[in-house]
Amino acid sequence: MKFFIDTANLEQIKDAQDMGILDGVTTNPSLMAKEGITGTDNIMKHYVEICNIVEGDVSAEVIATDFEGMVREGEALAELHDQIVVKLPMIKDGIKACKYFSDRGIRTNLTLVFSAGQALLAAKAGATYVSPFIGRLDDISTDGLNLIAEIRHIYDNYAFETQILAASVRHTMHVIDCAKLGADVMTGPLSSITGLLRHPLTDSGLEKFLADYKKGN
Ligand code: G3P
Questions:
Q1: In this structure, are residues 139 and 173 in contact, taking their beta carbons and an 8 Å threshold?
Q2: How far is CA 207 from the centre of its chain?
Q3: In the chain, is it the N or the C terminus that has fewer CB atoms within a 10 Å radius of its CB?
Q4: CB within 6 Å of ligand 1 — which residues?
């Protein structure tokens, strides 16, 4: 299972990268705005900075919602760095742009996916990644994890190569449940990764080992 971090915060990206377990980064316009990164030039520079920190894929989202605009923006993003994956919205022109890019060997991530039907379309269009937003489904009393299971089932039926990127992951149990269901990737905040470290028996056990060592030395 690949671990992506869902942030545009460089310190958090470095922190996860330093642990040696990071496989990539996802961003979106909201995450960029949260870090105060505004304006096309600054946003483009920020993507390059992120690519220089991590070794894996970095999803960079288009703003355009029409086919020609998505192609123009996506090509400019893809030229920034070979780690860039063009992130496209799950709308009709997004699917069309996804097919355009996949035909040309440019990797894509179909975002804002909330149904199995949308995920099926993403796979048909040759998306590299599909991003079902599980946390936002949970927010409206719908089982986000069930969507991961549905997509896994459908993709396995036809050996679709599109990778299921569980997005809008909010906490450690989302990560563990996505791993059980066979999501290829999860993207979440740093806390959803570092939270996996914690166990009180690890802390008390280590404390005891160190105390016993000190007694004999
Ligand atoms: O990966 C998608 C993500 O950025 C959305 O997360 O927590 O805003 O639903 P959230």
A1: no
A2: 36
A3: C
A4: 6, 26, 28, 31, 133, 135-136, 167-168, 170, 187
The residue with tokens 């070979």 is 82
Could you tell me which residues are beta bridge partners of residue 110? 88, 130
The reported pTM is 0.96
Task: Please check whether residue 129 is in contact with residue 185, taking contact to mean a CB–CB distance below 8 angstroms.
Answer: yes
Q: Report the pLDDT value the prediction gives residue 216, as an integer from 0 to 100.
A: 84
CA distance 48 to 2: 21
Main-chain phi, psi angles of 180, to 5 degrees: -60, -35
- Please give the Cα distance from 145 to 181 (Å, whole number): 8
* Contact by Cβ (8 Å): 88, 69: no
| pLDDT of res. 125 | 98
Ligand 1 atom having least distance to the Cα of 28: 4
Q: Which two tokens stand for residue 44?
A: 């483009």
Under-50 pLDDT residues of the chain: none
Number of C-beta neighbours around residue 94 at 10 A? 27
